[in-house]
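To close the chapter, one final illustration. This time we ask the reader to focus less on the individual chains and more on the assembly as a whole: which components sit near each other, and how the overall shape emerges from the parts.
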Amino acid sequence: MNIADTDSKSANSSCANEDSSRVLLALKSIDKNFLDKNILEHISLTIEEGQIVTLIGPNGAGKTTLVRIALGLLQADAGTIYHRSALRIGYMPQRVHVEPTLPLTVNRFLKLANRRDRGLLSATLEQLKIAHLGQQQLAEISGGELQRVLLARALLREPELLILDEPAQGVDLAGQAELYRLISEISDRQGCGVLMISHDLHLVMSSTDEVICLNHHICCHGKPEHVSNDPAYLSLFGVSAAQDLAVYTHHHDHEHNIGGDVQEHHHD
Amino acid sequence: MYKSITMIESMALFLTTDFVLYALAAGISLALIAGPLGSFIVWRRMSYFGDTLAHSALLGIALGLISGSNPQLSIIISCLLFAFILTILDRRPSVSTDALLGILAHSSLALGVVVLALADSVRVDLEAYLFGALLTIGNADLIWILLVVALVSIVLFWFWNDFVSITVHAEIAEIEGANVNRLNLILVMLIALTIAVSMKIVGVLLITSLLIIPPAAARSMATTPEQMAVKASLIGVVSVILGLVSAFYFDVPVGPSIVVVATLIFLAFYFYPGILKTRV
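The assembled structure is written out below.
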């Protein structure tokens, strides 16, 4: 397996020149086996600046494995990985075990990522609305708050690429929508690419550019509207899941923030 | 009145005796680095790992005595070697590390005792290595200890943030650019070095407790990793001093009495977490 560090490698040659400079990460024909089982077969995907790519698929489909290969935490058995030279990645893992014997405030946890830039720290806390958590113990905050703190840690690296493994885990439904909107906002504002894993297409629909439906191989991919009507998607998730989409496209006159409080819409 | 004067006099005598001063210097300086290192052992759940290292050190002593090399040096080398082997084994998740550590710990301890018994040519005070002999510390021992303490302090200070980061979440740390495998190895080597030179103080069987009990006692009083490490050091220093004094007055072995004092402090903080706050 090769990890190419420059723009000129062959993995990227199919892209047009003007596009290739925008490519952050490109995986080509990735294979991965555990024992004799094929976890990933011929997976190719590309993430460009400002683009949000969402991986969906059932449990055990290989989503996390694929993300770990993209991160370089796991070696692929075959295929090539291209990433832009000195690419800064912000990573939000799926599960974080907070060791109870380790005293750690939210602020101290975040300073592990970036010790010097205090301005960036307070701006990020402000942006994610978690400034009030700074002095609290990491082990004592709620699931939704922990997800925001983890997102903050990833953002403190000033990433060009954000890789998020189920960012909305442990967050209630309305809070999930808010979190996805926040991720989309960050991508727009900072121009970073996003690769994320999600269980629910309907929740990420409005905030994703490309959906890849994964079940060991890529079943279908494309715009979210397209994927939601794809027979491969319907057979994987069932027709009822697709019908749920209609439920979630109606508009609320209020919403709940991550803590569950009602927030009125303010139109101005 | 009369009694209290003799107490003061005997205390003065106690504190100016050479071997007591040596013991204090060695014990206090080791307690200072045992605080942060022991905190890492607690946070990373490595106490069994520390035990295995300590037990295997006895085999190192035995082999060193037979081959006629410097005993302190052979303990250090064998500890570092065992630490290296254990770290490599630990990277293979398919092997049951827990059972493996248990087998290694007790087989190397047994082998060490057997080898020492077979070597007729050398007379060894086995009890000194098992339970420590702080009061027999000489010039050369103290220099070894101070060198190791200085080295460990410098490396700990230099890599502190990295060590905390890989302990909190190794994968995030790796994505952020830390070389996790190398940092793990360095940390384990620091622990191995500290265990190697601590052997004379508390002995093979009690070393892990000197590393683990002070951080456990400090946990309830800390809100950051740094606070826990520093407070663990202070508790360790107090345990060494009180342990030495009580060993002197009650005529009991020093190593175990240091551990007993540390345990009493732990119990006090465990059952009365606010014990220090009420006075302030």
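The radius of gyration of chain B is 19 Å. Residues 139-168 of chain B form the longest helix (30 residues). With these observations in hand, you are ready for the problems at the end of the chapter.
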